[in-house]
Every structure is written in C-alpha cells, then in structure tokens.
Records
---
Amino acid sequence: MGQDNKITSDTKTKILDVAERMTQTRGYNGFSYLDIADEIGIKTSSIHYHFKNKDDLAIALVNRTIDDHSQGFDNIEKSIELPQKRLQAVIDYFKGYVKEQRFCLCGMMALELLTVSPKVIELVNIYFKNFENWLAKQYKAMGKTNSKALALSFLSALEGSLLFARLNNEPEVIDRALKVVMKT
Amino acid sequence: MGQDNKITSDTKTKILDVAERMTQTRGYNGFSYLDIADEIGIKTSSIHYHFKNKDDLAIALVNRTIDDHSQGFDNIEKSIELPQKRLQAVIDYFKGYVKEQRFCLCGMMALELLTVSPKVIELVNIYFKNFENWLAKQYKAMGKTNSKALALSFLSALEGSLLFARLNNEPEVIDRALKVVMKT
DNA sequence: GTCTATATACAGATAGAC
DNA sequence: GTCTATCTGTATATAGAC
C-alpha cells in the first residue's frame, strides 16, 4: 500500500524508516533512540535534533502512516475495478508484513495505549476511522446494506489474524481467517 | 473465565496479579519491577526472590493464564448446554476486559514476540492452540463441517475487535465484529 | 522472605563546540 | 546538522544483613 518509492534518504527519513520498522516489529516501548542511532550510524543527540522527544517521533510515525495508507487506498481504487479485488489487495498488503515480522503500526500503538500520549491515540483513531470508512465504501459498492458492520468485521479479523500469522510466520492464516468476511 | 476467587494473597500471588494486569494494560515492556513493588508495597529485590528475572515472571504469567482459561473453558462446558451460548460466554468474558483497559495477555505477549524469550512464545502458542481447539469443538457440536476454519475466524475477530473496543472503551464493538462468525 | 546497599547498564534528554 | 560530554532517572540484578 502507498508508495514503495522512498526516494529521499536524508537522516530524518532514515530515522522514521528505522523507527517505523522497530515499532512494527518490537513495539513502541521495545526500542530506544540508541537502537535507531546505532543502526543508522549516528548519535542519539542527532535524533533529538530531528525529533525533540520520543513522543514527537511517535506522532510523526502515525502521521506518515496515515498519509501513506491514504495514498495506498487511492492507488488501489485507481488500479483495481472490482471492490472485492480491492479488499484482496489490502489483505495482500498486510500479508506482506508477516515475512518481516511486522504488525500494523497503528495496531501496535493502540495496544500500547496507556504508555503513549493522547495525541498519538487521537491520530491512531483517525487512521482506523479512515481505514474503516474506506472498507465500508467498498462493501457499499458491492451492494451490501450492512457495509459499516462488514467493515468493522473485516478490520477486526485483519488485525487479529495478522497477530496469529506473524506469531508463526504463516501469511496464509490471514486468508483463512478472512474467508468469512470476504464471501459474506 | 476461570476462577474469580483469588483466595491466596501471599506475595507471590500479589506479584502475579499486578504483573498480569500491567501486562494486559501496558504491555510486557511497559512496566518494571519497581512499578510492581511500589504498588504492592515491597522492594524490587523481593520480587527477584520469587522470580529470578523478568523472563521467569513472563513464563509464570502465561502458564497461569493457560491453566486459568483451561478451567474457564471447562466451567463453561459444564454450566452451559448450547455451544452457541458457550461462544457468547467467551465473548462476554473478553468484553469484561474492556472496562479495565485490558487486552488478552497472550495476545499482548504475541505482539511483543521479538522482545520476549522463545519459551514464552512457545507457551503463548500452546495457549492459542488450546483456545482454537476448544472453539472448533463447539463449532463441531453445532454441526459445522468447517469447524477449524470458523474457530480461527472467531479467534481472529475476537483479538482484533478487542483491540478496537479497548481503544475507545466500547465493549459492544466486540459483539458487532463477531456477529458474522456467530451466525455463520 | 524481606530488607539495605550496591552494581552495571541504559533510558531519554540537553548544552554547547564544531 | 552532527558531534562530545554530561545529566538525571530508572532498569534489571546481586550480595549479604536481619
């Protein structure tokens, strides 16, 4: 989903890229500025220059994901005609997380709810509202009257099955878990 | 699910109780021995006496949850006749987590996959296998031929919807998300 | 079984030189 | 924009007294 073309490779972007991956793989409380700095080959004070504190970094991460996935949804709609196939494209995108042992960034943040700032949680909610609305739009285009309910079921099954798929490195678990909401 | 009757109140049990709640609310990387000690009113060295290191604590937590939920499943089968109602009992149990801002303990551990020991992950897998098998058993009792697939769908939707229900303190989200797998 | 005292390591963060 | 140096706080953990 979104652009795979990370053109820029300035420090700020590198920091975001590494922090994003670490948040998805280890959780937001599972890595430090030193972890990022060491991987990039800079000092922690340089990270503080770009992101005054870790909370700023979290906000930047979620904001970037909101934008990135928003573009991703647009791209899917432009390139794929059938709503059903569009949903499958989303599934395939998340299946791609499994091999890298990534979880959904906003899902991870949502789970760390009580340890991050309210601003981050507010943004996480925006991310999921966007996601849910887009899914409902697809179900509506499929002629479903209960499109909102189906969108919630899809999203829940997606996040939950991603948890299990990642646990044992079995991407196909996602397909199996979502079969019910795909042929409803 | 399981026994609500925590009879013993010795230090070891108190530690487990607090650590369990903190793991479910803040994540396993979201609290320290000092957090536990302060809440109970003891010193961190006393925790180390009962659990040599934090990994031992994690293992004890997951083992206790496996036992507790195993009993819970037995109790549900003994007290409820209809498989459909049994599934609803499980849903209601997890809905109870929401008001306390708890997530599934093993789900949380599964998400922190790369920051906990292999032994913990092994136990988390056992927990979910037990859960899945019990669910499949209920679906089979309902006359479903695809009981294994339904069990996976149920479990995925449960974990995923719990994430969203907890995010905004809306227990009913779980019911809405699971409607599809409940009337399949 | 719980404490005090202590050790080592690392966390997030800032001041100021270059 | 990145560095060195430093600060304060906290993490996990151990030794040994009581």
---
Amino acid sequence: MAPMTSTLGFAILAVLARADSTGYEIATRMRHPVGRFWTASHSQIHTDLQRLLAAGLVSYATAPGPGPQDKKVYSITPQGRDALRAWVTEPPRSQPERDELVLKTYAAWLADPASLIEMFRTALRRHEERLGEYEADWGAMEADPPPFGTPAFGNMAVLRCGLTYERHRAEWCRWMIDQLSRSLKPS
Amino acid sequence: MAPMTSTLGFAILAVLARADSTGYEIATRMRHPVGRFWTASHSQIHTDLQRLLAAGLVSYATAPGPGPQDKKVYSITPQGRDALRAWVTEPPRSQPERDELVLKTYAAWLADPASLIEMFRTALRRHEERLGEYEADWGAMEADPPPFGTPAFGNMAVLRCGLTYERHRAEWCRWMIDQLSRSLKPS
DNA sequence: TCGGGCATGTAATACGTTACATGATTCA
DNA sequence: TGAATCATGTAACGTATTACATGCCCGA
C-alpha cells in the first residue's frame, strides 16, 4: 500500500492533531518544539497543506488575516486522524542518518588536534545547554506524568528521548576532548 | 567563503583519504561502515566524483574493468586533502535532525498501545544487536588504542559515538515500552 | 542458466532550501 | 521610520532517490 502522503505530511497532521493552526503557526511549531526531530520551511508547509487538502486529510476555515489575503485556519479531518493513527504504528522506514559532526570525526585524524578540541568544546556546550533545558522541563513533568491518550504524553515521550540523546552526545564530546588532549601531550 | 563542494563531496574525500577506490567501492563503503553517519547512492557518487574531478580535488587512473567501460580508480589530490583538512575543523552547520521514530512518538498518544509496544520492541532489538557488534569491535580496539594521525583513530572515534548512541536509543526504547505497558494495565 | 557481484553511467522524479513578492499591525 | 511579527504564496535551485541501461565474470 502506497503511503497517503510524505513524512512531512504526517508531521503536519501531528501538529494539527493537537490544535487547529494557520500555515504560519505550523511553521513556528516546526521550529520549536517539533524542530528537534523534524523540520520544514514555511514554503514547504504551504505547498504540502494543499496536497493534504486535495487528499481530504485536512480542511480549513477562512478568517480575516493581517496581510492582503485571508488567513486559513487548518483542521485535521477524521480521515486525516485515521491516516495519522495508522501511520504511527507502521515500522519506520530505515532512514538516511546524516550527521555532519560524526563525518568530520571520521576524517579528524588528518586535522589539527587543537582546533578539533575547540570544535568539540563548542558542541559540548550546546549539548549541555539543551540538557539543562530538558532537565528543567522533565522536573516539571515528572511529578504527575500525563496519562496515555493525551497530547502531553507525546510531549513527555519525545522529551525523554531528547534527554538521553543530549546526555549521550555530551558524554561522547567529553570522551573526544579527552582523547584529543592526550594526543597533544603524551606522557 | 563558499564551500568547495557539498557535504557529500567531503564524505567521498574522507573515504578516498583512506584508500584509492572506484566509484563502486566508494558506494560500498557508503553503506558500511560510513552509512551509519552518511549515505549516498552510487548514482549520486558518480555525478559528484565528476564535480570533484573538475574542481581538482580528486584524480583517477584507468584500469581494465569488468563491464564495457574501463574502471576508474580515484585518488584524493593534495588540494583535495587540504580542502578536507580545512573542512573538518569548521563548525558543522546546524543540520536538519529528522527522526521518523521520534515523530511517530510525538503522535503516539493517538494510537494503539499494544501495537506501539511491538514497534518499540522491534526497534529495541535492532539497537541491542548493533550495540553488541559495536561492543565486540570496541573490545578488539581498546587493548591498544590507535594513535591520532592514523585512519584507525577516526574509526575508533566514530565507533565510540555509535556505541553511546545505541545505548541511549536502547535505554529510551525500554523506557517507552515500560510506560506503554503501564498504560495497558494500570494498578 | 540464472542470480549476484563488479563496474559504469543517465534520466526522471521527489524532497528541501533560499530567494522573491506582498502587505497590515505593533513596538521601539 | 524602521524592524519584527503575522500571514500568504510562487519560483529557482540544489540535493537525494529510484528507475533505466549496459555487460562481464563467477559460482551454484
């Protein structure tokens, strides 16, 4: 069975399943918090919404907008909700895993260790920052965890993933810095 | 300063910096072991090699090939090596982080918990398998760690990343399974 | 003899980013 | 007055996947 829409389409449906939104609002949520695991520019979202509309997975109501055109508040349709629900439990296609920092690391043996240490220190700082944010969010949630069946359950689940991911990344950066430091001053 | 080539170009250079190869061999290494952090199809590699050639970053020697055409054994040029070395320590552009399983998780609250458990169990198995492989490789390396300046250092560094990544993923999958199981039979 | 590995490439299509284009309101 | 936010869209370009096209050699 061919999929109804691209993965981006499901990302949009996942956002609309939580709240009706304009294309602009979807784009905003695509930056934060969805941006940690899926991204899209507003132009891509607008074009994809037209496809979802043609497929009957979303509908919209017009409202007077700030610009020259009316704004369109999109909603997920029952068919859209069904399609999303079915897609969620389908096994994810093995995906292209692209990680520029790791690729650089693969070729790191050619480069200057001191510059590499600086690069990994910058990366480490970023990961520690994010980890701090996630841990704060986690603390607020842990007290009474949201039950399955509510959107907040999804929030908690992806937060948990981000948390362990940032820990792993920070740990690896520290290991890299340690290894590279040793190569600078061998005992 | 505009980059000399796309990221894929640097991935190819990183492979050629280890050993001269035909386009076919590069494609093979792009599946394993490079495939864990960068992927490309052979058609993309062939076209990109032509660009790298035009830019003077690679050269090739012809040899009689199995098919109708001669095979081309590519080498990285000194300029290619310089470009790669310089690229390695440039800060990575923040990249589009796309993870289908996490996206599904974000919408998981809509779906059937039992099916979700199955999906995460499958994912967990895959991560544990890989972790096993990585740990075996690691054990073989840990005894005498390769020094910086050798390609094997790059191998070890990316292996270390894979190791902590798979651990994080497996841990998260177990947490998800646990959460979802609780929602099935609440005490 | 038939499928898989080795080896080269092109073409069509899909997906994603950046730039272009418009325009009201709000806040400094 | 000028930048930021809200709000819509199109066009051009770059990157990536899939399909098409060829053909030898080797082992089952």
